[in-house]
Amino acid sequence: MAGGGIPMNAPAVQGGYLKGKQLIFPLSLVISLFFLWGFSYGLLDVLNKHFQTVLGITKLESTGLQVMYFGGGYLCYSPIAAEVLKRKGYKVTILMGLALYSLGAIMFWPTAHFTSATNAKASFGGFLVCTLVIACGLATLETAANSYAVVIGDPALASARLQFCQSWNGVASFIGPLIASKAFFSGANQNNLTNVQYVYLAVSCAGMAVAVLFFFAKLPEVAEETGGRRGSVIDDNTLEMAIGHDGKVIGDAPLYKQYNMIFGFIAQFCYVGAQVTIASFFINYATENASYTSAQASQMLSYGLIVFTVGRFIATGLATIFESNFLLTIYCCFAIAFNAYIAAGHGKAAVGVLIAIFFFEAPMYPTIFTLGTANLGRHTRRGAGILVMGVSGGAVFPPIQGAVADAAGTRISYVVPLCGFVVVLVYVTYHWATHGFKIMRQKGATVIAASIEGGAVGGVVETVHYDEKKLSTAGIENIRRGSIGSVTGVTGGAKAY
């Protein structure tokens, strides 16, 4: 690894990936990270409305939380997190993220405690700083955890594995609004910030508890590609080759020429922007468009996040059957249709559709992340940081929607996320087209990862199926020497996961 190595106390996964029971412990730890930031994100959307009420700020001003969370944290800090990941490995990066997360959460206590009617605007500035610190921690965790969930197991199931891990993010995200509906919007609490202190104190304690677990755990590291690339033959039926579907050695091109990653970043930017705006203005939409109270709307937001969570688990199962790019194309079409109705509809039916759209959002983030980080080879960890930077779309879209909502109404402002879903549709449709319009997940003779001399590859890769009877002895020897271009008898083409 450039600039550093794998921590000595962490066993490296050499020559392949973890399988079966080997995956249970490390994935359980990773799932705890997804749970933490899901809970934090669920609280963020509720705080938007609560701060409007208690601190007397406008809808546009309240989106400062999203700007700090997604812009300051994810856009500005993700590259730093990616560099730490590149140099120090997964465990150190995760501990750094948990430390920042817990620090930001505990800072909510003095900020809320000293808030009064005379310093409301200044207090909101303090909450923005707290949110920024939490976001830096979450950006660090997400850079490491998303990448780790992808590379630790079978590349063929990378999308399904990340879907499963992120499903627990959804579980926590609907628990947040459920708690907030009671803690923030009931009785005298709807006009003060007392319970905000206690909720975020609990969040900080949870972050520190998980950090202790990670500190004492021997987390398996996955080494990135380090030296010369060459294919290898494992046995009579399994051939490993470090080549992509275009026939080129993966990770050979410089980072700025990894166009699939760049387009994946754009799609991720627009998707997260759309997702965040839909959730951030959910309570405003429900109270203005269907006359629900803030407490009722907060509960309905939690229902939407339950739908989101169920959608994640369902998408996990579907990803083991269907091609991920095909699935996402279908989901995007439904999301666009539902979003158009939300922007035009009225009443409780429109709120129902607003809840339903969460189902079609569910698989988008992990699928785009998996597609965007495929075939990066030695660039995998930095590429993961760049894809996580795409979360900064959540800082750009909400202010735009807030301005439209203040000027024309919350309902009309839902045209903004509609534009984001259209961009995602363009990306995944193009990806699906360039990979052969396949519908069912390909289950050829052998599904394999690339083998790199000196360590396991750090990313999802294109795979090649071959017919052992047609693969010549000379071809095998060429692979061993690294002359991949001389291989003959390769059949079945290449397959991206």
TrEMBL record:
Sequence intervals crossing the membrane? 23-44, 64-85, 92-112, 124-145, 166-185, 197-217, 262-283, 303-321, 326-344, 350-371, 383-400, 412-433
Q: Which UniProt keywords apply?
A: Cell membrane, Membrane, Transmembrane, Transmembrane helix
In Gene Ontology terms, what is one molecular function of this protein? transmembrane transporter activity
User: An example Gene Ontology cellular component term from the record?
Assistant: plasma membrane
* Cited InterPro entries: MFS (IPR011701), MFS_trans_sf (IPR036259), MFS_TsgA-like (IPR050375)
Query: Which SUPFAM superfamilies does the record associate with it?
Result: MFS general substrate transporter
Gene3D superfamilies in the record, alphabetically? MFS general substrate transporter like domains (1.20.1250.20)
Keyword DNA repair assigned: no
Topological category with respect to the lipid bilayer: Multi-pass membrane protein
Q: Where does the protein end up?
A: Cell inner membrane
Q: Identify the main location.
A: membrane
| Pfam families attached to this UniProt entry | MFS_1 (PF07690)
**Name the UniProt record assigns to this protein:** L-fucose permease
Can you name the source organism? Recurvomyces mirabilis
